[in-house]
Amino acid sequence: MTHPVAIRFVETELDDLAAREGRIAVLITPEGKLTAASRRLDRLTRGAVARAVGSPAWGKLKPGEGMVIGWPGGLAAEAMVLISLPRKASLAEARKAGATVGKVLDEKGALVIAENHPSAAEIAFGLALRAYRFDYLSEEKKPFGPVSMMVAHPEEVAAKAAPHAALAEGVFFTRDLVNEPANILTTDDFAARLAAMHELGLDVQILEEDELKDLGMRALLGVGQGSESPSKVVVMQWNGLSKPANGDAEEEPPLALVGKGVCFDTGGISIKPAAGMEEMTMDMGGAAVVAGVMRTLALRNAPVNVVGLVGLVENMPDGKAQRPGDIVKSMKGDTIEVINTDAEGRLVLADVLWYAQQKFRPRAVIDLATLTGAIIVALGHENAGVFANDDGFAQDVVQAARAEGEGAWHMPLQPAYDSLIKSRLADIKNTGGRWAGAITAAAFLNKFVNSETPWCHIDIAGVALPPSETALSPKGASGWGVMTLDRLIRDKFEA
Ligand code: BES
Ligand code: MN
Ligand code: ZN
């Protein structure tokens, strides 16, 4: 498991800059106004800094972007990174500035000179989020070197930065899970990694196939029945609110987070084309976000009750696999005609959503899933699709995402779409045809949610594993949603 780099905050001390190894990064305003530190670096490099910020290229940098000057004369450092950042930077701009350093970090480490910049803690967070790597190269890379950040008031900044550590750990946990190939991250392995979070104070329970059968989760079990890997539901409880002193008093109902955990999605008998199928190792991305958020809540000892539930299955073609045309009975009791075995995520979620509501009577439910290719057609890789049975709830989620710099867009969910998922033989069918594919998927899920329970569905198919690097993550899993949900929980659910 990858851990974020630890960043030390120290007093600004410019005397021995010339001898520093690794990378030296310094913040300069977009107008090119040099600070004490950048003036010192300019003198040591015989004017390289002033020439760089006077160049046309400097003016083209967006806030948070930088220029890397290699092997600068007059410095022992391998590189000097000049970062363009206004004094009044947005949160996303400040994090981007840190990411500019995180992106070029190596085993030699870095010194970031932030002086008295008001966003120093956010800069550090961006650096930590971008300094992530995940690979199976046989030649091991050396670990990242130490990072220190020079600031005007180290203790103050360290206090502001402290809550970010739990968040970065959660994001990295999610990214690792999404990046893992399916021969490593089987349903058993996934469940074991979640069970290990017991040591953080989470109560983790694993429901095995026989228990799922007893509960009547035939929709979920049907998806996994062609796989050698056993289907499971894992329940992670974080009870951050102490039980009411009065023994009779009810415990505060939790927020329930539900995740699609398809460890590999071949499509099943409705098999997917070969091109790009390898990407379906990420089809457990919803479950990974739920796991990452639970990890963050435990690490920061959040004063809130949240239960995370993930349905872990593998969708394989096999002699025992579910067929198109099969009719299954869900835990709710509704029958489902399986038109296409590749629309499996909604079958898994139908049962986990119902179980979450029956078992925990949650105050609200949020599910996350790499549910449809259609959401990528609609929104690309910039925004997750947000659906809800309550417009206010959807707006809260979109607001939280915006505050964290993660893209999210409110999508429609109206009864008019229900006719598309009417079945000839069963209560409902699992596909709605060509049009509005992300919406009919959401409409399907809606049938398994009590209308009095505030519910939000987030389709993360486009954002969980974007095709190129993002502002805060290298190419590969983004960890989208951990920051958004942590923010939402803080702002809307904590006492
Ligand atoms: N896991 C896929 C959705 C997906 C596609 C996620 C691309 C990430 C990237 C899902 O199970 C699926 O196959 N959906 C089908 C539904 C269809 C058969 C109704 C789809 O979107 O094509
Ligand atoms: Mn599928
Ligand atoms: Zn899928």
TrEMBL record:
Please give the cofactor(s) recorded in the UniProt entry for this protein: Mn(2+)
The principal location of this protein is: cytoplasm
Domain Cytosol aminopeptidase per the UniProt entry, residue ranges: 340-347
Q: Binding positions for Mn(2+) 1?
A: 265, 342, 344
**Subcellular location field:** Cytoplasm
Q: What is its EC number?
A: 3.4.11.1, 3.4.11.10
Show the GO MF annotations: aminopeptidase activity
Which catalytic reaction applies to this protein? Release of an N-terminal amino acid, preferentially leucine, but not glutamic or aspartic acids; Release of an N-terminal amino acid, Xaa-|-Yaa-, in which Xaa is preferably Leu, but may be other amino acids including Pro although not Arg or Lys, and Yaa may be Pro. Amino acid amides and methyl esters are also readily hydrolyzed, but rates on arylamides are exceedingly low
Key words, A-Z:
Aminopeptidase, Cytoplasm, Hydrolase, Manganese, Metal-binding, Protease
Pfam families reported in the protein's UniProt record? Peptidase_M17
Per the record, the similarity remark reads: Belongs to the peptidase M17 family.
Q: What is this protein called?
A: Probable cytosol aminopeptidase
Task: Please report the organism this UniProt entry assigns to the protein.
Answer: Sedimentimonas flavescens
